[in-house]
């Protein structure tokens, strides 16, 4: 095995470690959010993204990027959340082709109830993962990332 092969294997191992940590976090968040608020992780992600916007709305394309979903998956998710009265769609006043997705007061209230559960679960899982030698370097890198990003 040459140096280039070693570098590829190091990156592949890093990716597998990151994927393992992601899977662990996602499973625990899914369980906690469902039990406390009846939300999936991706539903929470949408409410979170909308709650961070002035006016609590985003264009559908922006929301798809924020939730890491395809346009069609975003539409299906928005339909489900709209059926639950957690968000609504409104036409853009400047561009009649544009559609905004907007958080409703019920969506905002559910988000506010779910956020502490999300944050506490994430903190607990990261603490547990940091105690595992194979995951500790990735968790430490996550803790250092905000300082590196500015």
UniProtKB/TrEMBL annotation:
SUPFAM superfamilies on file: Winged helix' DNA-binding domain (SSF46785)
Listed SMART domains: HTH_MARR
Residue ranges of domain HTH marR-type in the record: 11-147
GO MF annotation, one: DNA-binding transcription factor activity
Gene Ontology biological process terms, A to Z: response to stress
Protein name: MarR family transcriptional regulator
Organism: Agromyces sp. G08B096
């Amino acid at each position: 095995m040459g140096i280039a092969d070693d570098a590829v294997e190091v990156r592949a191992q890093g990716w597998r470690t990151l994927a393992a940590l992601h899977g662990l976090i996602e499973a625990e968040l899914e369980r906690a959010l469902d039990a406390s608020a009846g939300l999936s992780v991706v539903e929470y992600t949408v409410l979170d993204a909308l709650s961070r916007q002035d006016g609590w709305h985003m264009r559908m394309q922006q929301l798809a990027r924020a939730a890491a979903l395809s346009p069609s998956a975003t539409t299906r998710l928005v339909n489900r959340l709209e059926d639950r009265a957690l968000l609504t769609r409104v036409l853009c006043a400047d561009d009649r082709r544009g559609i905004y997705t907007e958080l409703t007061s019920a969506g905002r209230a559910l988000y506010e109830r779910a956020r502490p559960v999300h944050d506490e679960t994430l903190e607990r899982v990261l603490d547990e993962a940091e105690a595992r030698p194979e995951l500790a370097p990735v968790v430490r890198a996550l803790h250092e990332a905000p300082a590196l990003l500015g």
